[in-house]
Design a protein that fits this description.
- By secondary structure, this protein is an alpha/beta fold.
- It has a four-stranded parallel β-sheet, sandwiched between helices. A four-stranded parallel β-sheet has the order 6-5-7-8.
- The chain is globular, with a radius of gyration of 18 Å.
- The relative contact order is 0.17.
Length: 244
């Protein structure tokens, strides 16, 4: 059997564009490689701070992110994602920059989850900063303006430990405080919106707290790991015949 090359790395189907951060990334976070049971390839986008991406939505970041996506494609990634849900705003630009699939945000799951729910039900969305999440982000993820959606943010939770640590790019993270903030935010979301039938976690740093959200709501909860695993499952393997 002859096989064909053409790229420097093999066996890595998913490439991940990572913000320029230093905050702790615990298991479950997309920036922690042990989150996945398959290899991933990271590319750090210099100068892309959480503040600049989440609250700034700086269009000047499109160029370094597209260049990062192109670098991951050259290295052999079969699909490309990111570590910030707010990059849904640039979904079209990043997808156009490469030949492989690009899925910037767990917000892309919202229309799918909405289709699972019956009439009168809504998708609950937990985000790191509800005030910074705009119609532009939602539209970038293909979320129609009339889709039933209830949004809750963690930026005002107690001392806002989680949001402050991530967006402020701090060196420490109080995990127990972050768990409590997720539980409180989820509880308030469903109390204010009893029509919520399932929840999507916007932030790629939120998956470690999914069980907390499930525990207080009793609802299905989806995050970016689910979308990554779905895409990964559909990608062809390098030299699949030899891997049997």
């Amino acid at each position: 059997m002859q096989v064909r090359g053409g790229k420097p790395l093999y066996g890595i189907r998913v490439g991940i564009l990572v913000l320029d951060t230093r905050f702790p990334r615990i298991p479950g976070d997309l920036g922690h490689a042990a989150t996945f049971d398959f290899p991933v390839l990271y590319h750090r986008v210099r100068s892309a701070s959480p503040e600049r991406v989440v609250r700034g939505g700086d269009p000047e970041l499109i160029k370094p992110f597209t260049e990062g996506a192109q670098a991951l494609e050259r290295e052999g990634a079969g699909a490309i994602t990111t570590t910030c849900g707010f990059l849904a705003k640039f979904q079209a630009e990043l997808a156009a920059a490469v030949r492989v699939p690009v899925f910037t945000s767990s917000l892309l799951l919202v229309p799918l989850v909405a289709r699972m729910l019956g009439p009168g039900r809504a998708v609950g969305l937990l985000t790191i900063d509800a005030g910074a999440l705009t119609a532009e982000h939602l539209a970038g993820a293909g979320i129609a303006a009339d889709l039933p959606l209830a949004i809750g943010g963690l930026e005002r939770e107690g001392a806002a430990t989680f949001a402050r640590s991530i967006i402020g790019d701090e060196l420490t993270l109080d995990v127990e405080a972050a768990r409590a903030e997720h539980r409180d935010a989820a509880r308030r979301l469903v109390e204010a919106h009893p029509e919520v039938g399932a929840i999507v976690l916007e932030c790629a740093n939120m998956p470690p707290y999914r069980a907390d959200v499930q525990a207080v709501t009793g609802l299905p909860v989806f995050d970016m790991r689910d979308l990554i695993r779905l895409v990964h499952a559909g990608l062809p393997a390098d030299f699949a015949d030899l891997a049997r």
